[in-house]
Structure prediction request, 250 residues.
Amino acid sequence: MTVVLKLGGSVITEKDEPETVDRTALSAAVSAIADSAVGEDIVIVHGGGSFGHHHAAEYGVSTTEGTHDVNGVQAIHGAMCRLNAAVVDALSEAGVPAVPVHPFSAAARDTGGDISLPTAQVTTLLEEGFVPVLHGDLVAHAGAGATVLSGDELVVELAPAVDADRVGVCSTVPGVLYEDGTVIDRIEAFEAVASALGGSDTTDVSGGMAGKVRALLALSAPALVFGPDALPAFLAGESPGTTIAGNDSD
Prediction:
Protein backbone atom coordinates (compact mmCIF):
# COMPACT_ATOMS: atom_id res chain seq x y z
CA MET A 1 0.00 0.00 0.00
CA THR A 2 1.32 3.41 -0.98
CA VAL A 3 0.50 6.44 1.15
CA VAL A 4 0.89 10.14 0.54
CA LEU A 5 1.05 12.02 3.85
CA LYS A 6 0.85 15.79 4.23
CA LEU A 7 2.11 17.24 7.49
CA GLY A 8 0.59 20.66 7.90
CA GLY A 9 2.97 23.52 8.46
CA SER A 10 0.98 24.51 11.54
CA VAL A 11 1.55 21.02 12.95
CA ILE A 12 5.34 21.02 12.79
CA THR A 13 6.12 24.70 13.36
CA GLU A 14 5.19 27.43 15.79
CA LYS A 15 3.21 29.20 13.11
CA ASP A 16 3.06 32.58 14.85
CA GLU A 17 6.82 32.60 15.52
CA PRO A 18 8.88 33.15 12.32
CA GLU A 19 11.07 30.18 11.36
CA THR A 20 10.48 28.20 14.55
CA VAL A 21 10.12 24.40 14.48
CA ASP A 22 7.77 22.82 17.01
CA ARG A 23 10.27 20.16 18.05
CA THR A 24 7.82 18.26 20.25
CA ALA A 25 5.17 18.02 17.54
CA LEU A 26 7.70 17.13 14.83
CA SER A 27 9.20 14.43 17.03
CA ALA A 28 5.76 12.91 17.67
CA ALA A 29 4.94 12.87 13.97
CA VAL A 30 8.30 11.37 13.06
CA SER A 31 7.92 8.65 15.72
CA ALA A 32 4.50 7.71 14.33
CA ILE A 33 5.93 7.43 10.83
CA ALA A 34 8.98 5.46 11.97
CA ASP A 35 6.84 3.05 14.01
CA SER A 36 4.24 2.45 11.30
CA ALA A 37 3.96 -0.56 9.01
CA VAL A 38 3.91 1.71 5.94
CA GLY A 39 7.67 1.38 5.75
CA GLU A 40 9.20 2.80 2.60
CA ASP A 41 5.94 3.06 0.64
CA ILE A 42 5.24 6.62 1.73
CA VAL A 43 5.69 10.05 0.22
CA ILE A 44 5.74 12.91 2.71
CA VAL A 45 4.79 16.49 1.95
CA HIS A 46 5.01 19.24 4.54
CA GLY A 47 3.61 22.73 4.59
CA GLY A 48 5.34 26.03 5.20
CA GLY A 49 4.13 27.06 8.62
CA SER A 50 6.17 29.86 10.14
CA PHE A 51 8.90 29.39 7.54
CA GLY A 52 7.39 29.88 4.08
CA HIS A 53 4.15 31.64 4.99
CA HIS A 54 5.90 34.36 6.98
CA HIS A 55 8.12 35.40 4.07
CA ALA A 56 5.41 34.90 1.45
CA ALA A 57 3.10 37.25 3.34
CA GLU A 58 5.90 39.82 3.66
CA TYR A 59 6.45 39.85 -0.11
CA GLY A 60 2.76 39.57 -1.05
CA VAL A 61 3.11 36.19 -2.73
CA SER A 62 0.37 33.54 -2.81
CA THR A 63 -0.75 30.74 -5.10
CA THR A 64 -2.20 33.39 -7.44
CA GLU A 65 -0.14 36.53 -6.73
CA GLY A 66 3.44 36.32 -7.93
CA THR A 67 6.68 38.24 -7.55
CA HIS A 68 9.68 39.10 -9.70
CA ASP A 69 11.66 40.24 -6.64
CA VAL A 70 14.68 37.97 -6.44
CA ASN A 71 15.12 38.79 -2.75
CA GLY A 72 11.61 37.55 -2.06
CA VAL A 73 12.17 34.40 -4.08
CA GLN A 74 15.38 33.64 -2.21
CA ALA A 75 13.80 34.37 1.17
CA ILE A 76 10.75 32.16 0.65
CA HIS A 77 12.53 29.24 -1.02
CA GLY A 78 15.45 29.44 1.40
CA ALA A 79 13.14 29.27 4.39
CA MET A 80 11.35 26.24 3.00
CA CYS A 81 14.64 24.48 2.36
CA ARG A 82 15.63 25.08 5.98
CA LEU A 83 12.36 23.60 7.24
CA ASN A 84 12.68 20.67 4.84
CA ALA A 85 16.18 19.98 6.14
CA ALA A 86 14.85 19.91 9.71
CA VAL A 87 12.11 17.44 8.76
CA VAL A 88 14.45 15.19 6.75
CA ASP A 89 17.04 15.22 9.55
CA ALA A 90 14.42 14.25 12.15
CA LEU A 91 13.15 11.41 9.98
CA SER A 92 16.68 10.19 9.26
CA GLU A 93 17.56 10.17 12.95
CA ALA A 94 14.51 7.95 13.52
CA GLY A 95 15.68 5.46 10.90
CA VAL A 96 13.40 6.57 8.07
CA PRO A 97 15.30 6.67 4.71
CA ALA A 98 14.13 10.21 3.99
CA VAL A 99 15.52 12.34 1.15
CA PRO A 100 14.65 15.92 0.14
CA VAL A 101 12.87 16.84 -3.07
CA HIS A 102 12.56 20.57 -3.78
CA PRO A 103 9.63 21.43 -6.08
CA PHE A 104 11.01 24.85 -7.09
CA SER A 105 13.75 23.08 -9.04
CA ALA A 106 11.31 21.26 -11.30
CA ALA A 107 7.74 22.55 -11.26
CA ALA A 108 6.09 25.34 -13.26
CA ARG A 109 2.72 27.02 -13.72
CA ASP A 110 1.40 28.09 -17.11
CA THR A 111 -0.34 31.42 -17.67
CA GLY A 112 -3.62 29.87 -16.52
CA GLY A 113 -2.08 28.76 -13.23
CA ASP A 114 -2.08 25.04 -14.00
CA ILE A 115 0.76 23.05 -12.46
CA SER A 116 3.34 20.99 -14.32
CA LEU A 117 5.29 18.80 -11.90
CA PRO A 118 7.61 16.07 -13.16
CA THR A 119 7.21 13.09 -10.83
CA ALA A 120 9.64 10.51 -12.21
CA GLN A 121 12.19 11.39 -9.54
CA VAL A 122 9.63 10.71 -6.80
CA THR A 123 8.42 7.40 -8.23
CA THR A 124 12.00 6.27 -8.83
CA LEU A 125 13.08 7.18 -5.32
CA LEU A 126 10.15 5.17 -3.94
CA GLU A 127 11.09 2.17 -6.07
CA GLU A 128 14.67 2.43 -4.84
CA GLY A 129 13.64 2.31 -1.18
CA PHE A 130 13.74 5.97 -0.23
CA VAL A 131 11.08 8.15 1.38
CA PRO A 132 10.79 11.35 -0.68
CA VAL A 133 10.04 14.44 1.40
CA LEU A 134 8.61 17.35 -0.56
CA HIS A 135 7.39 20.70 0.70
CA GLY A 136 5.33 23.73 -0.10
CA ASP A 137 7.55 25.99 -2.16
CA LEU A 138 7.67 28.60 -4.85
CA VAL A 139 7.08 27.70 -8.48
CA ALA A 140 8.01 29.44 -11.73
CA HIS A 141 4.80 30.99 -13.05
CA ALA A 142 4.51 32.14 -16.66
CA GLY A 143 3.65 35.84 -16.69
CA ALA A 144 3.76 36.19 -12.91
CA GLY A 145 7.36 35.49 -11.91
CA ALA A 146 7.09 33.05 -9.03
CA THR A 147 4.03 32.03 -7.02
CA VAL A 148 3.43 29.73 -4.06
CA LEU A 149 3.04 26.03 -4.73
CA SER A 150 1.12 24.73 -1.74
CA GLY A 151 1.58 21.38 -0.07
CA ASP A 152 -2.04 20.59 -0.85
CA GLU A 153 -1.42 21.14 -4.56
CA LEU A 154 1.59 18.83 -4.34
CA VAL A 155 -0.54 16.12 -2.75
CA VAL A 156 -3.01 16.32 -5.63
CA GLU A 157 -0.19 16.00 -8.18
CA LEU A 158 1.67 13.22 -6.36
CA ALA A 159 -1.16 10.90 -5.31
CA PRO A 160 -2.07 9.73 -8.84
CA ALA A 161 1.58 9.72 -9.93
CA VAL A 162 2.56 7.19 -7.24
CA ASP A 163 -0.79 5.37 -7.47
CA ALA A 164 -1.53 6.17 -3.84
CA ASP A 165 -4.03 3.96 -2.05
CA ARG A 166 -4.63 6.51 0.70
CA VAL A 167 -3.93 10.17 1.28
CA GLY A 168 -3.62 11.73 4.72
CA VAL A 169 -3.62 15.39 5.67
CA CYS A 170 -2.46 15.91 9.25
CA SER A 171 -3.75 19.30 10.39
CA THR A 172 -4.00 21.14 13.69
CA VAL A 173 -7.71 20.31 13.93
CA PRO A 174 -9.27 16.82 14.31
CA GLY A 175 -10.90 17.02 10.88
CA VAL A 176 -12.93 19.37 8.74
CA LEU A 177 -15.30 21.08 11.15
CA TYR A 178 -18.89 22.23 11.05
CA GLU A 179 -19.51 25.77 12.29
CA ASP A 180 -20.30 24.41 15.76
CA GLY A 181 -16.88 22.75 15.97
CA THR A 182 -17.96 19.13 15.43
CA VAL A 183 -16.11 17.00 12.90
CA ILE A 184 -17.67 16.42 9.49
CA ASP A 185 -17.46 12.66 8.99
CA ARG A 186 -17.50 12.58 5.18
CA ILE A 187 -17.40 15.10 2.31
CA GLU A 188 -18.32 14.16 -1.24
CA ALA A 189 -19.08 17.61 -2.68
CA PHE A 190 -17.75 21.05 -1.76
CA GLU A 191 -21.13 22.73 -2.00
CA ALA A 192 -22.48 20.56 0.82
CA VAL A 193 -19.99 22.01 3.30
CA ALA A 194 -19.08 25.39 1.77
CA SER A 195 -20.85 27.41 4.47
CA ALA A 196 -18.81 25.69 7.20
CA LEU A 197 -15.42 26.30 5.61
CA GLY A 198 -13.26 29.35 6.08
CA GLY A 199 -9.61 30.35 5.90
CA SER A 200 -6.84 29.62 8.37
CA ASP A 201 -6.77 31.65 11.60
CA THR A 202 -3.06 32.31 11.15
CA THR A 203 -1.11 33.59 8.16
CA ASP A 204 -1.79 31.19 5.31
CA VAL A 205 -1.18 32.05 1.67
CA SER A 206 -2.37 28.73 0.30
CA GLY A 207 -6.14 28.76 0.79
CA GLY A 208 -6.90 27.49 4.30
CA MET A 209 -9.24 24.57 4.90
CA ALA A 210 -11.53 25.46 2.00
CA GLY A 211 -8.56 25.19 -0.35
CA LYS A 212 -7.61 21.84 1.13
CA VAL A 213 -11.06 20.39 0.64
CA ARG A 214 -11.35 21.63 -2.93
CA ALA A 215 -7.96 20.13 -3.77
CA LEU A 216 -8.60 16.77 -2.11
CA LEU A 217 -11.99 16.34 -3.79
CA ALA A 218 -10.10 16.13 -7.08
CA LEU A 219 -8.40 12.88 -6.07
CA SER A 220 -9.57 9.39 -6.95
CA ALA A 221 -8.01 7.94 -3.79
CA PRO A 222 -9.78 8.63 -0.49
CA ALA A 223 -8.23 11.43 1.53
CA LEU A 224 -8.49 11.89 5.27
CA VAL A 225 -8.06 15.08 7.27
CA PHE A 226 -7.21 14.53 10.93
CA GLY A 227 -5.33 15.96 13.89
CA PRO A 228 -1.81 15.06 15.08
CA ASP A 229 -3.04 12.62 17.73
CA ALA A 230 -4.71 10.55 15.01
CA LEU A 231 -1.61 10.14 12.84
CA PRO A 232 -0.74 6.67 14.23
CA ALA A 233 -4.33 5.52 13.58
CA PHE A 234 -4.19 6.75 9.98
CA LEU A 235 -0.87 5.03 9.37
CA ALA A 236 -2.35 1.83 10.84
CA GLY A 237 -5.07 1.88 8.18
CA GLU A 238 -7.87 3.39 10.23
CA SER A 239 -10.06 6.31 9.09
CA PRO A 240 -9.87 9.09 11.67
CA GLY A 241 -11.20 12.60 11.18
CA THR A 242 -12.94 13.55 7.96
CA THR A 243 -12.97 11.34 4.86
CA ILE A 244 -12.97 13.32 1.61
CA ALA A 245 -14.18 11.13 -1.20
CA GLY A 246 -14.58 12.92 -4.48
CA ASN A 247 -14.48 11.26 -7.92
CA ASP A 248 -16.17 8.11 -6.58
CA SER A 249 -13.27 7.32 -4.25
CA ASP A 250 -14.09 4.90 -1.46
